[in-house]
Specification:
Helix content is about 60%, strand content about 5%. The chain has about 600 residues and is α/β, with parallel strands linked by helices. The chain has 3 domains: about 30 residues; about 400 residues, no CATH class; about 120 residues, STAS domain (Transcription Regulator spoIIAA, 2-Layer Sandwich). The strands form 3 sheets. It has a 5-stranded mixed beta sheet with strand order 5-6-7-8-9. Strands 1-4 form a two-stranded antiparallel ribbon. Strands 2-3 form a two-stranded antiparallel ribbon.
């Protein structure tokens, strides 16, 4: 019996290993997901009933805010309003479970309207869902490739430019419902939309304008009067009730509502409003003739959705970190957003991303964990199942007023004006270019050109950081040295020697007169890094100097990567060149004869 404990320990070890492998909240690829962290807090008794109560209340508040906004955004895209609710339900819950930020609330956002509306016009609802599915795959690939940290380096003028452009387009699209204009189908391009709205100005209905104005006044006043009550629900609910009462008293009063604009079929009958049930899962491409040409036509839009979704979700996560003193995992966030956009289209959900306004609302309402975002999705689901008949009474002008306020809030007009006034001309050029491309063309052009401009701007700034020049007396602030011997010159390079700066750094040496020096100390001690283009420019310069019978001494420490210099020596690229560890060591070797070239 005394040996039993030893036998028990030996028998228990494999079980412990198996249990660790199964526990995905402590080991494996899922350990960084916020829901796993929340489970660990529960196990460690770091999450109690007070935290759960705070999360549920925050989720209720955000769900109430998301309900009218999700429908309004789906309508702005050109899809029936229930598809915005499907997005908040499925993409919101999946991303909360698998994303990289425990405070992020995901759903349809205004930023996507400019991208998604042309897809609906050209490819229909199935094309919209398929593009969102493709964007989800791209987001997962970005996260797996650990590109999350790189996307956050997109310059501020780029994001401000296309964000303000999106706001202008969204606000313009709301004019039709704000004034009750009879325009018919809207054209694709922005200038054509503006012209169509102008030509339909005679059909403006003052009753629709009154409904929109009343909603807008309530949306602006209620947060100050009743700050603890979600303004969108109370404002739209109040106006909807007043409009329904007015129509009951005056049957001839014709106000456009969700009920007389949208219908669905159930048991062979056409019913006004939105369905009070979830759709059966089906492939998003079921309404398309799927072939290579169709997918290729949707790929640019999918790329734009993925890039904008990545930028917006990561910006929202960064701001949430600042509000809560936490840190998110950007790569896990991209994977979570991608999975949400992959799953949601099978249930009719359109493209989704982290929503900054809803995330901030959740944090202010006391969110503690992803349970708040999951509760938000549950609130939208319950409202859809039990309150769908009431949705039919919401006026279209009220939803247009809500989106008009959203457009104003996302326009960042003060920041746009500030950049235009004080920023360097190159930043202003990027800002205005992204703004105009978003408004005049579409977000595909804006995102693509914006990223290219960002890269070019980065290369130019890095090239400006690299300085070079001759030091004929051998002295500077950091290297006090005695006067140089006759016929000796020092050429110092300061900064990265890469493809954006190599040519500029080497130009002076190529233009140097042969009688200016006999020996050149090429000081690379302050070059932090060198790439293939920089080394090629350096090699060309060294070859030119050797052809003019100049003695060249490379003063280090040589820049990274270190293996580059070993390979250069092995291939004979540095034959006849003296290499010293510092400028002082190089000066000590000035009188030495140059090494003979390798045989």
């Amino acid at each position: 019996m005394r040996d039993a404990p030893n036998l028990h320990v030996a028998d228990d070890a494999p079980r412990r290993t198996r249990r660790q492998k199964v526990d995905l909240t402590t080991n494996g690829i899922f350990s960084s997901f916020p829901i796993a962290a929340a489970i660990r807090r529960v196990r460690a008794k770091g999450y109690d009933r007070a935290d759960l109560r705070a999360d549920v209340l925050a989720g209720l508040v955000v769900g109430v805010v998301a309900l009218p906004l999700s429908m309004a955004l789906a309508i702005a895209v050109g899809a029936p309003p229930q598809h915005g609710l499907y997005t908040a339900i499925f993409a919101g819950s999946v991303t909360a479970l698998l994303g990289g930020s425990k405070f992020q609330v995901t759903g349809p956002t205004a930023a996507f309207v400019v991208i998604l509306a042309p897809i609906v016009a050209e490819h229909g609802l199935s094309g919209l869902l398929t593009a969102g599915f493709m964007a989800g795959i791209l987001l997962v690939l970005l996260g797996v490739a650990k590109m999350g940290t790189l996307i956050r380096f997109v310059p501020y003028p780029v994001t401000t430019g296309f964000t303000t452009g999106i706001a202008v387009v969204i606000a313009t699209l709301q004019i039709r419902d704000l004034l009750g204009l009879e325009t018919g189908p809207m054209p694709e391009h922005f200038h054509e939309k503006v012209l169509t709205l102008w030509n339909a100005r005679a059909s403006a209905d003052w009753r629709e304008a009154v409904v929109a104005l009343a909603t807008l006044v309530l949306l602006l006043a209620l947060p100050k009067l009743l700050p603890k009550i979600p303004a969108p629900l109370l404002a739209i609910g109040t106006v909807s009730l007043a409009t329904a009462a007015a129509q009951a008293l005056w049957p001839t009063l014709d106000i456009a509502t969700i009920g007389n604009r949208f219908h669905y079929e159930a048991d062979g009958a056409e019913i006004a409003g939105i369905p009070s049930m979830l759709p059966s899962p089906s492939p998003p491409w079921s309404g398309l003739t799927v072939d290579f040409e169709e997918l290729r036509a949707l790929l640019p839009s999918a790329f734009a959705i993925a890039m904008l979704g990545a930028i917006e979700s990561l910006l929202s996560s960064v701001i949430a970190d600042g509000m809560t003193s936490t840190r998110h995992d950007p790569n896990a966030e991209l994977v979570g957003q991608g999975l949400g956009n992959i799953i949601a289209p099978f249930f009719g959900g359109i493209a989704a991303t982290g929503a900054l306004a809803r995330t901030a609302t959740a944090i202010h309402a006391g969110s503690r964990s992803p349970i708040a975002a999951i509760t938000h999705s549950a609130v939208v689901l319950v409202a859809m199942l039990f309150l769908a008949p009431l949705v039919a009474y919401i006026p279209m002008a009220s939803l247009a007023a809500l989106l008009l306020l959203v457009a104003w809030n996302m326009s960042e007009l003060p920041h746009f004006v500030s950049i235009a006034r004080v920023a360097p001309r190159s930043d202003v050029l990027v800002l205005v270019t992204c703004f105009l491309l978003t408004v005049v063309f579409d977000m595909v052009w804006a995102v693509s050109v914006g990223f290219v401009l960002a890269a070019v701007l980065f290369m130019r700034r890095m090239a400006d950081l690299t300085e070079s020049g001759f030091a004929l007396d051998g002295t500077d602030d950091d290297h006090p040295l005695p006067s140089l011997p006759p016929g000796v010159a020092i050429y110092a390079v300061n900064g990265p020697l890469f493809f954006g700066a190599a040519q500029q750094a080497m130009e002076s040496l190529h233009a140097a007169h042969s009688d200016a020096f006999r020996t050149l100390i090429l000081d690379l001690g302050r070059v932090t890094v060198i790439d293939a283009t920089g080394f090629a420019a350096l090699e060309s310069t060294l070859h030119s100097l050797r052809k003019r019978n100049k003695k060249v001494i490379l003063a280090g420490p040589l820049p990274r990567p270190t293996p580059l210099w070993e390979r250069a020596r092995a291939q004979g690229l540095l034959d006849g060149i003296v290499v010293a560890t510092s400028r002082e060591a190089a000066l000590a070797r000035v009188s030495e004869p140059p090494p003979p070239p390798a045989p």
